[in-house]
Amino acid sequence: MALVLLLTTECQSRYAGVSSFESEVIKEFDNILTIEPTIKRLLDLKPTIEEIRSSNQVNERPVIGIFTQPYNDTSDYIMAAYVKFVEASGARAIPIVWRDSDEDILKLVPKMNGVLFPGGGTSLKNKDGSLTEYSRKGELVLNKVKELNDQGIYYPILAICLGFQEVSQIEAPYVDTLETYYFDADDISNNVTLKSTISESKLFNEMPQHLITAIEQENITYNHHHDGVLPSAWNNHAELRDAYHLLGVSYDEKDIEYVAFVESKNYPIWGLQFHPEKNIFIWKPDLHVPHSPTAIELSQFLSNFFIREARKNFNQFDSDQDAFDHMIEHIAVDLTTAAAQDIYVFDINNHS
């Protein structure tokens, strides 16, 4: 009887205002033969994605997939700063190994709550503009995330530096989308010239005004790249121009303009040419990474924002053990003297 009352209360709250609700429930439960299927039907009711978004429900155990990069012929790596970046806001990190099979990658993505495409130095396009195998695997992930969002599962992507370039090349696989070895923006800190489109940006609508001012007036975004996307190329390709808000641009040492900040119009996808993870976690003394209070606060805001978005879905692994077996903690850390400092390196033929 207690279960019946509980289910009735649950349904009343869900179907408030539906006429003759109580009489319909009484009719259902009057017939003993219909109790079992009725209970099953009521228990199968689940909140819609819109109900979750408008409620205070959040995933308290978010998991972020970080796309790996080739280290050598037999190993992949992830810079540890990216792992710390998501962990700092309460998420756990799992590698998406780009050399895994398409099937394995497509099985893994729906179990996680967000994807981070990190910076790095691998090749993204062939001479004709077509995607390299690395970018093709990234395309698998990007399209799967879009598919999940189309199904009503809110699923964010944050793409940083090379990751942003990769998303751009995937969306518009042309020769002129991505300029390679073109920009002089290696180890410099810039401001970002913001566009009027920030008024339509979810991220900027949530960013405190003093940080927006700081982005425009202070050199707090750290850049470490020679490749990038020209605003003219961005605007020339409808796949980019019509699908994303171009939120801001920066200038390299030769005063050449490049795309610095974008946000998808239709999906929870954000792209940054700069490195927010380095402000907090990279301390190599010969690099010019800004560590001012506002630079740190910007990085913290972007980390918190991304993980807050990832908390909006409840994807999960088949079991706690299944999730644990995939965690990045199983991978050895290599302490290097390179710009990346500590990195997770693992044998591609021997990972969970």
Automatic annotation (TrEMBL):
Quote the subcellular location field of this record.
Answer: Secreted, Extracellular space
The record's section on PROSITE patterns has: GATASE_TYPE_1 (PS51273), PEPTIDASE_C26_GGH (PS51275)
Q: Which UniProt keywords apply?
A: Hydrolase, Secreted, Signal
**SUPFAM superfamilies this protein is in?**
Class I glutamine amidotransferase-like (SSF52317)
UniProt GO cellular component terms = extracellular region; vacuole
User: What EC class does the entry list?
Assistant: hydrolase
GO molecular-function annotation terms? gamma-glutamyl-peptidase activity
Q: Which reaction does it catalyse?
A: (6S)-5,6,7,8-tetrahydrofolyl-(gamma-L-Glu)(n) + (n-1) H2O = (6S)-5,6,7,8-tetrahydrofolate + (n-1) L-glutamate
Its main subcellular localisation, reduced to a broad class, is secreted
GO biological process annotations for this chain's record? Answer: tetrahydrofolylpolyglutamate metabolic process
Q: Which domain of life is it from?
A: Eukaryota
Catalytic machinery residues: 161, 275
Q: EC no.?
A: 3.4.19.9
InterPro entries hit by this protein: Class_I_gatase-like (IPR029062), Pept_C26_g-glut_hydrolase (IPR015527), Peptidase_C26 (IPR011697)
Q: Which family does it belong to?
A: Belongs to the peptidase C26 family.
Protein name in the entry:
folate gamma-glutamyl hydrolase
Species whose genome carries this gene: Euplotes crassus
